[in-house]
């Protein structure tokens, strides 16, 4: 599959059509805000492109691609966790996003070092994902993430972090 074919067969349609409460008991439908949907779509694209990139690297059977494969798998697994937690405003959502962003940055850097088309496409998509996360979390585009979040005390006395 070429990078162009990958772009045509993936994207927001895979995850963008899911509701924020898909799979929850009771089936209550909550509307995700535009920014949250954009973030979820960006995470979903990163998960898909990293899965594809890892598969392509594995197909090559090149031991030099081991770190690329590992990092792509990290992005995929952490991204799937973020897709489950962020839309429901989990109190751990911000820290999951921070961990996800670190994995995305490491993977983008690794993939950017390889001249293979799938690695270059992966690095490009991950760069877009980093920008989206920074925008969602309120960080300036070039300056890294802010670590503070809006905290509020819930009725149960537990703390939750907003985005």
From TrEMBL:
Gene3D superfamilies: 1.20.1270.360. It holds the Pfam family Csp. Residues 1-23 have a biased composition (Low complexity). Residues 1-37, 139-163 are annotated as: Disordered. InterPro entries: Csp_YhjQ, YHJQ-like. It comes from the Archaea. This is Four-helix bundle copper-binding protein. It comes from Halorientalis persicus.
């Amino acid at each position: 599959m070429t990078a162009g074919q990958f772009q045509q067969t993936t994207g927001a349609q895979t995850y963008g059509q899911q509701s924020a409460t898909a799979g929850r008991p009771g089936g209550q439908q909550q509307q995700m805000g535009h920014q949250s949907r954009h973030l979820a779509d960006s995470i979903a694209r990163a998960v898909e492109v990293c899965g594809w990139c890892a598969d392509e690297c594995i197909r090559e059977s090149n031991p030099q691609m081991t770190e690329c494969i590992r990092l792509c798998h990290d992005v995929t697994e952490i991204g799937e966790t973020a897709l489950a937690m962020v839309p429901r405003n989990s109190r751990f959502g911000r820290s999951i996003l921070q961990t996800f962003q670190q994995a995305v940055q490491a993977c983008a850097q690794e993939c950017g070092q390889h001249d293979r088309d799938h690695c270059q496409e992966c690095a490009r998509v991950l760069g877009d994902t980093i920008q989206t996360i920074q925008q969602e979390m309120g960080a300036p585009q070039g300056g890294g993430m802010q670590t503070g979040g809006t905290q509020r005390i819930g009725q149960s006395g537990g703390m939750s972090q907003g985005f």
